[in-house]
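Our consortium's second objective concerns turning raw sequence data into structural hypotheses that experimental partners can test. To show how far this objective has progressed, the report includes one record in full. It was chosen at random from the queue rather than selected for favorable results. The single chain below, 146 residues long, was entered without modification.
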Amino acid sequence: MPGIKLSKARCRALVISCSDFRFISAQRQIRLDLGLEHAYDLLARPGGVFALVRPSTRTARQSMLDEIDMLRSLHHFREILLMNHVTCGAYRGLARGKAEVRLHREDLLRAKAMLQSRYPRLAITAYLSTIVDDSVRVVSVTDEEE
């Protein structure tokens, strides 16, 4: 497997996603389609943005923000991609079906607003992985959607 030349390596993005193995390939493909191969940091946590918008403890959100700050200061990325998925164990019991999709959309947009306020010069995009006919489809989440 060919490597990358470290002297030419530049981090373009931070990807915040869930650590669920079922969605890794589809989400990785989106990153490749966006031209980010070998050019992003990956922060994978159960629930993706869950700890930012629904922290289980007082320190959970701050811990995640500290990691983002550290990666930003080390690698100077220019954008953040937020990637959640349906049927997420971290969201278990909160919503199902269309309500689950709405909940993820709301959480992704809340996380986007929070990070946009903290990093106003960064481009921040949100994606939701859904299941269609037993395969994964990754869709962009925007403010204009219902």
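The partners drew two points from this record. The chain has one domain: 9-141. The longest strand covers residues 123-132. Both points have been shared with the crystallography group to help prioritize constructs.
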